[in-house]
Amino acid sequence: MRTLGVDLAAATKKTAVAVIEWDLDSQGQGRATLAHLALDVDDQAIVDLFGTSDMTGVDCPVGWPDALIPFLTGHLANVAAPVLEHDGIAGRRLLAYRDTDRFCTAQTGLIPLSVSADRLAHPAMRCAVIQAKIASLHGPQSRDGSGRLAEVYPAASLKIWGLNGRGYKGRGTTETERLGVLLEALREQAPWLDLAGHGAQLAASDDLFDAVVASLTARAVARRRTLLPDQAHAQAARSEGWIHLPSCGLSDLQD
Predict the structure, then answer these.
(1) Given this model, what pLDDT does residue 172 score?
(2) What's the whole-model pTM score?
(3) CA 4, CA 224: separation in Å to the nearest integer?
(4) Engineering a disulfide at 7: which of 16, 24, 117, 152 sits with its beta carbon 3.0 to 4.6 angstroms away?
């Protein structure tokens, strides 16, 4: 199996990808090798890598809140009713956060950035274009992750796996030190993961590191070891997207 992890930014400069190949060693034990790692990745490279991977995990919202469309349409057409439905902070939260965001917060305590009211909207616009490009070549991919593309959230995966993912993003000395500690913790918990000489690159870039975590999470998705949307969440997951939270430990990814 090949899993692709994409840490998607609005521009190519901070977009990272990681491909992990999963196999068995001579003793029949699971092993994983970091086969490809790259920063400054454009749309076409992502689409090409998607085509050669069994499952892709993208660290970016793949959709917007269902409530946002009628709100914007009503505003555009000067129709008050769908706009006034979201009067007040509670109403605006429905415009800012998706069903999956609220589910993620309930499960992990983490609050994902808003796809419609934060800077995350810019990568999401790019992600929508990439999804369209993938659809033209490989067919549409369901936003609930039941196809070959799934939305992932590295910070949540790290927390579920017992790794301290706080304070490692950035280029300061403190952030770099924390990233190095986090990378070592990952190596200790996943000795079966061969970084193939990319350790120094990962220790120097939180974007590359997140791409690896996204690829590991994609393995959990492929193995059906994530929290899936139940009947209450299924409809929203198909339209808004669904963050796949691992329901297994790191060691279980070997199986």
Answers:
(1) 84
(2) 0.95
(3) 16
(4) 16
